[in-house]
Amino acid sequence: MARIPTKDEILAWISDNPTQTSKRDIARAFGIKGADRIPLKAVLRGLEADGVLEKRRKTYRDPDRLPPVSVLEMLAVNSDGDMFAKPLEWEGDSDAMPRVLYIPRPAEPALGAGDRILARLTHVGLDDYTYEARLIRRIGTNPRRLLGIFRAGAEGGRIVPIDKKADREWIVQAGATQGAKDGELVEAEQSGPRARMGLPQARIVARLGDPSAPRAVSLIAIHEHGIPDAFPDAVLEEADRAKPAGLGGREDLRDLLLVTIDPADARDHDDAVLAHPDEDPDNPGGHVIWVAIADVAHYVTPGSDLDREARKRGNSTYFPDRVVPMLPDRLSGDLCSLHEGVPRPCIAVRMRITAEGEKIAHRFVRGMMRSAASLTYEEAQSAIDGTPSDRAGPLLDPVIRPLYAAYAALKTARGRRQPLELDLPERRIELSEDGKVSSVAFRPRFDAHRLIEECMVLANVCAAETLGAKKRPFLYRVHEEPSVEKLDALRETAQAAGLTLAKGQVLQTRHLNRLLEQAADTAEAELINLSTLRSMTQAYYSPENFSHFGLALRQYAHFTSPIRRYADLIVHRALVSAHRWGDGRDGLSAEEADQIEATAKHISDTERRSMLAERDTNDRYLAAYLSERIGDEMAGRISGVTRFGLFVKLDENGADGLVPIRSLGSEFFHHDAQAQTLMGSDTGLTLGLGQVVTVKLAEAAPVTGGVILELLEVDGAVMPRGPSRGARAGRKGKPPRRKAGKAKAKAAKTKRKVARTRR
């Protein structure tokens, strides 16, 4: 009988031979054959029972070491530019999970945080990391993630997704709950392939607490859309080390009466304005406009921890109860915010316009300013309307009146340019101290808003023109014209409303404005504005200039909000480099210029991510607000038509609700996707965009944001209900199925009786 190796001898051999860990490999290594394999098997079972080895398809290995080929999930690039990965099948002590450094080869695809790869590992055993990984192949996208409410069961439980578009629940096995409690909000990911039959399976990866807790609504959106909401320590430390900028090398603008004009609840102030008459006799009636923007580039330099985190976030995300900022509060709320009476570094543009609002010259400076006042839109408007506040009163003649005079000239130029003039009120959700919705209203819109918008648009045009002329790499803000298909849909909507959108010509914004003017002050105004908005393409960032259709501008860039948009920071750095300001450390680096196309795509994606998160959050808050009014009747308009029902926008608060097609009655409704209508097969009732309706609130789900409505009236008439299926069948000369079935059964029964009698 051959000598059976001890447990220590087997472990030592496996450690030296990690690729040969099957029972056959171990037996061959120790010269064990035939019946002697039985006691060897018992030793291996003992090692497995002790938790020292695990069995994987007849293969044994040390759980405290990774196999030579493993599946890894990539982590974010660290401050040194290195990318590490975590093993997905680690069975050892969680506190001792090895660090794996990814070593890319020159021609391999770029990997990002969350990517999963099959990699070949080399054990190096260094202090900083244990393994080095080389890519074998990328193995696709991350497993599907979901947020939902956990419902505990006898053996694990289920997850009810919070996504209102989700059509089924997910099963969680007993060992994959992470200790989640019934009713808790959880984040989970798909486990195993999705079955074609039955419910999919998931494992919980994070417990997020009580979904009904105050201010949990925005937290749901943050996790659902993967928005980074916690700054790494290194980023916070770098921000805390920042010191206020000095005047050295800057133009002193502190004597200029620059003011900020923002919403009353503004969390940061990154732009200030000033206007005065142009004293040049060659420009009679002209104006000089200053726009000064916080010099964020001074504090956030290329390649720094702050810069990497800002690029990762792409932009700030705003919710009714919180903001997820692009920059830490030390910068966004302090050093980079243009607070009243505090010296702040800025990049400013001085613009000269004619009496008709045409720009005739501009120049950029890097300066030091001091805001004369932090005004709200309401304060500025009240002042020009004749009721100035104590703070705005002294600024009325030297600051506010000249600003409005310059705006009047810009407005004249805007009328000639004819940018798209959509009139869509902005919804405002106000929360009480306990985080509940106290009211839903529409934000008032004043000339003060339009004044600031026109000044910012002009400054953005100057930035694009300057950098384009100097042939510097930077990011344009691009808005391409609508597709033919979307324009055809808009044209049909207009025709259904009795309006006209001309065909057979090169589309310009003035054509769309003419349509909007036709609809103004009519019942179809909101419908036409919404339909026009939906026909537009999504604006994005690009290093190539494809113009801005909506603003009717050939060149356009984002320059005026570097605290909350990374694109603006890129433009600031490009201006620093183009003007050779300072020592160049805060200008656009060569590395940034090389990857500017990737940056454009990334921040365009983060912008869309924030828009979706903000919209979903508003939907959930509105559903929570409406959940206390189940059964109420409300007025609205049909805003969307699909094969599964109608969408209705409520007049009172702008909430969108679904009228399921099953609730419209028992008759069949034909869906015409091109005309965007539903037509009843029996009543002939046609339901289409823009119709005035009265609905009853049937359901409102705060967790998903879903609102279900019941249609009561259409254009002032009670909603007709089609006849029953039985009645329809009778009219066609055919007995209802149920009666036919009974008759058939009765005939069969009679036939059986006759047969028994004959027997």
UniProtKB/TrEMBL annotation:
Compositional bias per record (Basic residues), positions renumbered to this chain: 728-759
E.C. designation(s): 3.1.13.1
Broadest EC class assigned to this enzyme: hydrolase
Major site of localization recorded for this protein: cytoplasm
PROSITE patterns listed in its UniProt record: RIBONUCLEASE_II (PS01175), S1 (PS50126)
UniProt xrefs under CDD domains: S1_RNase_R (cd04471)
Organism: Meridianimarinicoccus aquatilis
Lineage: Bacteria, Pseudomonadati, Pseudomonadota, Alphaproteobacteria, Rhodobacterales
Keywords: Cytoplasm, Exonuclease, Hydrolase, Nuclease, RNA-binding
Protein name: Ribonuclease R
Family to which the UniProt record says this protein belongs: Belongs to the RNR ribonuclease family. RNase R subfamily.
Pfam families listed in its UniProt record: CSD2, RNB, S1
